[in-house]
Structure to design on (342 residues):
C-alpha cells in the first residue's frame, strides 16, 4: 500500500485529539479522581502499583516517576506478568490498572488477585463497559483513542491529588494540576509547529532506532522504542536508559550507524541525555534530538506531553515517506483473540 501523505485519520495518530481528550477527563473524571485520592490517603495506603502493557504500561511509568520523586509512597510500574510474579502481598496497596480494551488477560488476572486481597483497584480504560471496568472499584473511562496521553493525564491527576491529600509537595501538585489544565490550548497551538519540524526531520526509514531517554520521559521512550517504532513502522527499535548508555550500549555506536532518537526534558537526568547527544555528534552517528524546550516552557513532569506530539508526528512522516500504513498489523489482533492462543 502506497500512501499519499500523513494518515491524520488513522487510529494511531492521536495528537489531533490530545487536547479535547484531556478536557474530557477534566470535566468527566477529575472530581472522581480527586475523591479517590482522598479515600486512598485516608485508608493509609503505602504503595501504588501501576500495571498494563505497551502504551498502557508506558503511561504508568509517568505515575511511578511522579510519586517516587515527590511523595512518600512506594510506587512502581510493572507489566502485569511481573505484578503476578513479584507482588507477594497487596496489603496497603492501591492498584492502577490500564488497558484500552479492558480485555488484556494478564491485567485482568492481576486485578482479580489484588481484589482477592482487598486492594482497591482504579481502572483506566476506554469505556465503563468492559471486563476490566467491571472488576474495578473506580473506573476512569477515557473515551478516546489517545491511548498514551489520556492515561498519563489520569495518572498525573491521581498523583497530584494523592500528594495534596497526604500533605506532600503541595507546590508541585498545584503546579502539575495547573499545567495539565493549560496544556489542551498549548497542544492546539503546537500542532503546526510539530508538523513542520517533523517533516523536515524525517528521512528514509533506517534498519534500527535506539531511543535514549530518562526521567519522566522514560515511559515515552519505552513506548516509542518498544512499541511505536516496531509496531507502527515495522522496523527494529529499542529503548536505552540514558544512564545506561555508557554501560554497554555505547559499543554499538559507529560513524553513520545505527540511528538514535534522544528525548530531552527538564528533569535531573537531562545532562545524561545531553552527554549522549554530544558523543553521537562527535562520532558522526545519525540521531534525532527532541527537546521539550523547543516547544515552550514546560515543568519537569509535563515535558513528555510536547515530546509525545513531536515524536508521534515524526513517526507519521517517516511512515508516509516509506509508504507504510501505521494501522497495519501482521499479527496483533489476527493470530488469535487472546495472546497465546495460536
Amino acid at each position: 500500500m502506497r500512501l499519499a501523505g500523513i494518515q491524520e485519520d488513522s487510529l494511531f495518530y492521536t495528537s489531533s485529539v490530545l487536547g479535547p481528550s484531556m478536557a474530557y477527563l477534566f470535566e468527566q473524571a477529575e472530581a472522581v479522581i480527586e475523591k479517590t485520592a482522598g479515600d486512598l490517603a485516608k485508608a493509609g495506603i503505602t504503595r501504588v502499583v501501576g500495571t498494563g502493557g505497551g502504551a498502557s504500561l508506558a503511561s504508568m511509568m509517568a505515575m511511578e516517576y511522579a510519586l517516587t520523586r515527590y511523595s512518600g509512597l512506594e510506587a512502581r510500574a510493572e507489566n502485569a506478568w511481573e505484578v503476578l510474579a513479584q507482588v507477594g502481598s497487596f496489603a496497603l496497596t492501591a492498584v492502577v490498572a490500564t488497558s484500552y480494551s479492558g480485555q488484556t488477560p494478564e491485567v485482568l488476572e492481576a486485578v482479580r488477585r489484588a481484589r482477592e486481597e482487598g486492594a482497591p483497584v482504579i481502572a483506566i480504560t476506554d469505556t465503563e463497559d468492559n471486563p476490566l471496568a467491571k472488576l474495578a472499584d473506580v473506573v476512569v473511562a477515557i473515551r478516546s483513542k489517545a491511548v498514551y496521553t489520556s492515561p498519563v493525564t489520569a495518572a498525573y491527576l491521581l498523583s497530584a491529588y494523592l500528594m495534596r491529600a497526604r500533605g506532600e509537595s503541595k507546590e508541585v501538585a498545584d503546579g502539575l494540576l495547573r499545567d495539565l489544565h493549560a496544556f489542551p490550548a498549548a497542544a492546539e497551538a503546537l500542532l503546526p509547529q510539530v508538523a513542520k519540524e517533523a517533516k523536515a526531520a524525517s528521512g528514509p526509514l533506517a534498519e534500527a532506532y535506539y531511543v535514549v531517554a530518562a526521567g519522566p520521559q522514560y515511559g515515552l521512550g519505552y513506548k516509542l522504542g518498544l512499541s511505536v517504532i516496531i509496531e507502527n513502522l515495522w522496523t527494529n527499535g529499542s529503548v536505552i536508559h540514558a544512564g545506561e548508555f555508557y554501560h554497554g550500549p555505547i559499543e554499538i555506536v559507529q560513524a553513520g550507524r545505527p540511528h538514535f532518537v534522544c528525548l530531552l526534558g527538564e528533569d535531573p537526568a537531562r545532562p545524561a541525555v545531553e552527554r549522549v547527544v554530544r558523543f553521537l555528534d562527535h562520532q558522526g552517528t545519525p540521531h534525532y534530538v527532541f527537546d521539550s524546550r523547543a516547544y515552550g516552557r514546560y515543568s519537569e513532569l509535563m515535558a513528555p506531553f510536547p515530546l509525545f506530539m513531536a515524536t508521534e508526528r515524526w513517526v507519521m512522516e517517516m511512515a508516509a515517506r516509506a509508504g507504510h500504513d501505521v494501522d497495519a498489523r501482521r499479527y496483533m489482533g489476527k493470530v488469535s483473540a487472546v495472546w497465546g492462543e495460536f
About this structure: The two ends are 27 Å apart (CA to CA). The mean pLDDT is 94. DSSP finds eleven helices and nine strands in the chain. The first strand starts at residue 47 and ends at 52.
